[in-house]
Amino acid sequence: MFVAPLTIVVGTRPEAIKLAPVTLALEQAGLHPQLLLTGQHPRLDLTALGLGDLPTRQLHRKAGADPHAYADALAAAIGRELNAVRPALVIVQGDTASALGGALAGFRTGVPVAHVEAGLRTFDPALPWPEEDNRVTIDAGAELLFAPTETSAANLRAEGVPGTIHITGNTGIDALRRQVGDLPLRRPRAGGLPRLLVTCHRRENWGTAFLPIALALLELARSPWLGIDVVLHPNPQQASVMRDLLAGNTRVRLLPPLDYPGMIQAMLQASVILSDSGGVQEEAPALGVPLLVLRSKTERPEGIASGNMKLLGRETQLIVTEVKRLLDDPDHYASMATPSLPYGDGHAAGRIVQSIALWLPARHRDAVRLRA
Ligand SMILES: CC(=O)N[C@H]1[C@@H](OP(=O)(O)OP(=O)(O)OC[C@H]2O[C@@H](n3ccc(=O)[nH]c3=O)[C@H](O)[C@@H]2O)O[C@H](CO)[C@@H](O)[C@@H]1O
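Structure tokens predicted for UDP-N-acetylglucosamine 2-epimerase (non-hydrolyzing):
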């Protein structure tokens, strides 16, 4: 049977990381994946993720200030690509403007949509904005919904989405397994000073909203027994606010955005992580590094239930107290440092490809029947 190619939309660093295992597994299964890069993050290193040799089209669309206008522009541009190629399926991941643009393009051109990482919800459209709305819109129209966990699948069932739900695990854990080997990992305790690793890039922590977090870091930096690494985000606006607030403090190292292997190494060497990132919430439990989440709500509650992470928000004193408690109380530390896999076992891509391989011939037959 002839199978048209499958278009995989990639806009940002986390989408590239999480779609790499799916793309490679589709390629191995002979299902002709083609990457469509939107340009939302302009310099994605696909070679480091094993995707250097794949057929790739670039849209070179820079993100603007208005995420809705950007998603609309992407939907139009991706729609033109889909009409030219007529793929059997367009695959999008997560909740970015690129994912929304890819899904809207599929809905408008009649190309079926598959959503990887479906069903994540905070149930608050403002947190994170506009990603929560993006996920709901994508899931309402996608034909194949790859929910990472039972919780995300239950969210989809409660919404009565018409697509088919498959529970697969999160493909981010597949990517992590490729980096570090079998999971969950029992890492050796790092020697030397305890280290705090910080990443912070969500819109709700942009600009002056970052101030209480910076004050907490400066307070913690007064302790001679703690080293602090802050990894800057590729977004220059956010990076410059962090630089202005933290540069000059000799105990705080400001690191440029790291490549994926470098980031995983930094996580492995950290004693505690402070982050508002989605992907880091999935990775830290698997690596057994306690994580304090700089948000008031999360769409990833599984890591709280497994005891590996705690939601903190961004109140200065609370951040300081919780970091000190972790570093001063070995029992408390141990309770959050037991590695676990609440988001998946690292074999999600295989399950996704199997579902697509079963779905394709059935969908293809239906399409032929409809045309006849
Ligand atoms: C809160 C939220 O809405 N987050 C969304 C956001 O990702 P998310 O918040 O995860 O985006 P990040 O930019 O933090 O990327 C996380 C990934 O990048 C890696 N990393 C991080 C820093 C660094 O310097 N180098 C590096 O390689 C991390 O190890 C992780 O794998 O888009 C993802 C892709 O659609 C979605 O799954 C998430 O739901």
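The chain has two domains: 6-180+345-371, 195-336.
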